[in-house]
């Protein structure tokens, strides 16, 4: 006879350990698969990473260009890598100990997209491709705004080729090309588009050619003059309206009238410099899929600060932004971490697939139905905390005495009455909020036949088929198959009024109604 004393904690732990060891021994292959599948997926990731590294990362197009240089008096050569031995695609991977300085540029609209004139009405300049570029001003002091706007642009092409960058900094250079992700190469200089010099007034055929950079990053550019137009606007709200109407979707006439920038001088005076700047951030591309592009804002800031300094001191006073350049960088290679790239998919494969899932067609959780009391009678508890789960494809029956709540439960599941509390799901759809969608996946055969005596069996099926969103040929096919499945198709029975059916035929028609459309429940 067993000892009457309760089992100690160690005895209970020993029993559980022995039980678990026996259970795991009999499920050893399940445990092996559980361990090997993640291990196999890790091997797949390692293989993909190795394949990518061999075919892409180690490709000559994705690393700095090199050349074998022969030494004097020696037949052997030494491999030397650098920008001078690289193509433009390879140059981004090279070490750049001394990055090339580039003149700061302002982004201006294409000639066909510019604001045409002060009244935004004259479109003839668009046909000639010589519309000015427009900068808007507003603030508390219009006379100060007029003074600062006059100090923005120069009226000549002062070029000193011995100190080219300083000479270019004395001009307001612009491009129609968006910025690059870095300043190692400026897309506005690398491209084949012109460099523009914004001036208050342009002389005919005013253009200058110059060379920028050092070999192999040496570019010959042509600089052309474009007129700069400064307009005073009464308020910042009007500037916002003009900017919005400058874009295609904001213009009621379907025109594009873009400006370069706008300045709000606010309360700026001789003792206070306070300015807001509007700039074009359309091409920043900060969606996260690609590195964001640099915006051409520094020259806009320098332009206004230099104009304000000349207003305070003298026209000869200048504070120029001579160039922009990147920080030095070491040699790099194209790297891609496959595990990080498909980490979410890998997590799904390894972790989420191990979580339990349900394939049950019906799930009920603590459903209750209480009918309110009437005529002084207390409330009636019809269903008391019912919970069940019925898998797909299972035939489930409910037994119980009269008044046990079977009919109330069926009425709740079919939407005839609402549960007092609890929840129930049919094919993952909540019967309290998604009953319209539940009806399309559920068939109901009531305890008593709900038929119209004057409608035929076929007409009944057409009605219920349409309620389940069956149309055209699919509806006709479903009706024929339902009639055939309950043996009501032959002998013209399907087209007879249901009132002339026998009790068994009416029951078969009710079954056909519940099964039309191949319901899942």
TrEMBL record:
GO molecular function (one): ATP binding
Family: Belongs to the ABC transporter superfamily. ABCA family. CPR flippase (TC 3.A.1.211) subfamily.
Lineage: Eukaryota, Viridiplantae, Streptophyta, Embryophyta, Tracheophyta
Transmembrane regions: 32-52
Keywords: Membrane, Transmembrane, Transmembrane helix
SUPFAM superfamilies found in the cross-reference section: P-loop containing nucleoside triphosphate hydrolases
Stretches assigned to the ABC transporter domain: 384-521
Domain of life: Eukaryota
Keyword Metal-binding applies: no
InterPro entries listed in its UniProt record: ABC_transporter-like_ATP-bd (IPR003439), ABCA (IPR026082), P-loop_NTPase (IPR027417)
Pfam family, one: ABC_tran
Species of provenance: Brassica cretica (Mustard)
The name this protein goes by in its record: ABC transporter domain-containing protein
GO cellular component: membrane
């Amino acid at each position: 006879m067993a000892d009457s004393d309760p089992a100690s904690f160690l005895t209970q732990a020993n029993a559980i350990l022995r039980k678990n060891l026996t259970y795991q021994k009999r499920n050893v292959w399940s445990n092996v698969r559980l361990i090997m599948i993640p291990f196999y997926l890790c091997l797949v990731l390692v293989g993909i990473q190795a394949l990518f590294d061999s075919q892409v990362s180690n490709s000559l197009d994705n690393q700095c260009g090199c050349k074998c240089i022969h030494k004097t008096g020696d037949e052997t050569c030494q491999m030397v890598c650098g920008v001078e031995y690289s193509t433009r695609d390879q140059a981004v991977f090279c070490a750049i100990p001394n990055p090339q300085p580039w003149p700061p540029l302002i982004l201006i609209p294409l000639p066909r997209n510019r604001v045409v004139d002060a009244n935004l009405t004259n479109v003839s300049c668009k046909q000639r491709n010589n519309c000015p570029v427009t900068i808007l001003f507003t603030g508390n002091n219009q006379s100060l705004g007029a003074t600062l706007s006059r100090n923005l642009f120069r009226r000549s092409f002062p070029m000193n080729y011995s100190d080219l960058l300083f000479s270019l900094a004395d001009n307001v250079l612009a491009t129609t090309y968006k910025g690059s992700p870095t300043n190692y190469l400026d897309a506005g200089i690398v491209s084949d588009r012109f460099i523009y010099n914004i001036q208050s007034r342009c002389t005919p055929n005013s253009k200058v050619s110059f060379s920028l950079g050092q070999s192999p990053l040496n570019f010959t550019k042509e600089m052309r003059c474009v007129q700069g137009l400064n307009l005073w606007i009464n308020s910042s709200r009007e500037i916002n309206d003009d900017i919005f109407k400058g874009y295609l979707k904001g213009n009621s006439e379907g025109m594009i009238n873009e400006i370069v920038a706008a300045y709000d001088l606010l309360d700026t005076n001789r003792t206070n410099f306070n300015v807001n700047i509007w700039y074009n951030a359309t091409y920043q591309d900060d969606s996260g899929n690609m590195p964001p592009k640099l915006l051409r804002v520094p020259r806009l800031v320098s332009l206004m600060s230099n104009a304000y300094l000349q207003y305070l001191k003298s026209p000869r006073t200048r504070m120029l932004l001579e160039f922009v350049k990147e920080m030095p960088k070491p040699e790099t290679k194209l790297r891609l971490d496959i595990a990080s790239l498909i980490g979410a998919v890998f997590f799904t494969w390894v972790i989420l697939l191990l979580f339990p899932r349900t394939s049950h067609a019906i799930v009920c959780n603590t459903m209750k139905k209480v009918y309110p009391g009437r005529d002084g009678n207390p409330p009636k508890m019809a269903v008391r905390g019912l919970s069940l789960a019925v898998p797909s494809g299972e035939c489930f029956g409910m037994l119980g005495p009269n008044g046990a709540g079977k009919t109330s439960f069926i009425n709740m599941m079919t939407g005839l009455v609402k549960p007092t509390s609890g929840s129930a799901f049919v094919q993952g759809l909540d019967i309290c909020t998604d009953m319209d969608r539940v009806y399309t996946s559920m068939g109901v055969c009531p305890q008593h036949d709900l038929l119209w005596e004057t409608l035929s069996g076929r007409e009944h099926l057409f009605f219920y088929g349409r309620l389940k969103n069956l149309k055209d040929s699919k509806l006709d096919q479903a009706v024929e198959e339902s009639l055939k499945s309950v043996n009501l198709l032959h002998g013209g029975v399907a087209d007879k009024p249901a009132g002339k059916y026998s009790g068994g035929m009416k029951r078969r028609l009710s079954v056909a109604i519940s099964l039309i459309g191949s319901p899942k429940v």
